[in-house]
Every structure is written in structure tokens, then in C-alpha cells.
Design goal:
This protein has 6 helices and 11 strands. By secondary structure, it is of the alpha/beta class. Residues 2-163 form the DJ-1/PfpI domain.
Length: 207
């Protein structure tokens, strides 16, 4: 099973690295980072760089696509090199997926018309602009399109995908191998549970 994760400037690292870690641990899976041209691509914090080892042209027909999000998403909403590749790859994939604002790129590529989809809570209303039906859930499956909410939800999405692609036991084994046992110190990971005033402070961090 060949997974391709496209990279673009100012992606959010965990959006890409979370699913990468889950799927790279899975038996029979290989994961490739791709970009318009092979080479380094820097994340939204400016201090972490991943290397794309392939160009989009090198990987025209992956089994799985995982599109990460990040502040740079808005800069590539009309990047036809990326959108065209997503559109073409989707013709061949078993699953086309996204994390966070990566779903906006699926929508911009024309893949979410009438589809239930999710994204980061701060951008959920924007999904309607690309034809999707916004859903405030952590992982949303719509046929072979699977979208995840913000950042850390990419791990949940990848485990959900792995259970579909292999079986629940394989996904559970990987979850145990990476000791994914979330026990957050605070119950404020959603606007629904955040204390008063915290949403504004969180938005200031990500904008």
C-alpha cells in the first residue's frame, strides 16, 4: 500500500508526521513525501523541514493520499500543480484523506461537492465554500474520502484508515506500538469544552 503525503510551504508538521508515523509502522505500507519538486519543505513554525523525495509527477497513482493542512493552505488554494495532482491521484486511490485545513485543498480540487467533511474548528464554516457539508466531528468518512479535524486528529484518522485498509487488530497493534494513549492534562481540546476567553487566545496562536 503506497501512501503519498504532499508537502507545501507552511504546512503544519503534525498534520503530516502524525499520519506518517501510524502508516509507516503498518506492515505492507510505504509512505512517500512529495512536492512539486523534490527537496526540503519547511513547516509553519519555520524551524522544521521535511524532505520531499519525489515530485508529483513521480507518484501519479498512489493507493492513499494524505493532504496535510496548515497556514500555508490558503497560499496554495489555487496552485494547480498541487490541485491537479490531487485530482488526478484521486482517480486511482483507494482512499483520499486530509488533516485539518487540508480538506480545503480537497474541496478546491473539486472532490468534496456534496460530501460530509471536517477540518480544524476555526475553519469549519469555510468548507461550505468548497461544496462540502461541514461536520464537527474528529474523523469523517464519506465513501473513500476521509477527513480529520485539526492537527492531532490526523493520528485518529490514520488509525481509522488503517483499520479499513487492513483490519482492526493491525490498527490496534500500531496504536499500542506507538503508545497512543491520550490522557490530556486539560479538557479544553475543543471550543465546546474550552473555558471562556480561550478560543480567542488559541486563534491568536494560529493566525
Amino acid at each position: 500500500m503506497h501512501v503519498v503525503i504532499p508537502l507545501y510551504p507552511r504546512f503544519t508538521a503534525l498534520d503530516a508526521v502524525g499520519p506518517y508515523t501510524v502508516l509507516a509502522f503498518a506492515p505492507g505500507f510505504t509512505v512517500t513525501f512529495a512536492a512539486e519538486r523534490p527537496g526540503p519543505v519547511t513547516d509553519d513554525r519555520g524551524s522544521l523541514t521535511l524532505t520531499a523525495t519525489a515530485s508529483y509527477a513521480d507518484v501519479p497513482a498512489p493507493d492513499v493520499v494524505v493532504v496535510p493542512g496548515g497556514p500555508g493552505t490558503l497560499d496554495v488554494l489555487e496552485d494547480e500543480a498541487l490541485l491537479g495532482w490531487i485530482r488526478q491521484a484521486h482517480e486511482h486511490t483507494r482512499w483520499t484523506t486530509s488533516v485539518c485545513s487540508g480538506s480545503l485543498l480537497l474541496g478546491a480540487a473539486g472532490l468534496l461537492e456534496g460530501a460530509r467533511a471536517t477540518t480544524h474548528w476555526a475553519l469549519l464554516d469555510f468548507l461550505g465554500n468548497v461544496g462540502a457539508e461541514p461536520v464537527a466531528e474528529r474523523v469523517v468518512e464519506h465513501g473513500r474520502i476521509v477527513t480529520a479535524a485539526g492537527v492531532s486528529a490526523g493520528i485518529d484518522m490514520a488509525l481509522t484508515l488503517l483499520a479499513r485498509a487492513s483490519d482492526a487488530t493491525t490498527a490496534q497493534s500500531v496504536q499500542l506500538a506507538i503508545e497512543y494513549d491520550p490522557q490530556p492534562p486539560f479538557t479544553c481540546g475543543s471550543p465546546r469544552t474550552a473555558p471562556e476567553g480561550l478560543v480567542e487566545r488559541a486563534l491568536a496562536i494560529i493566525t
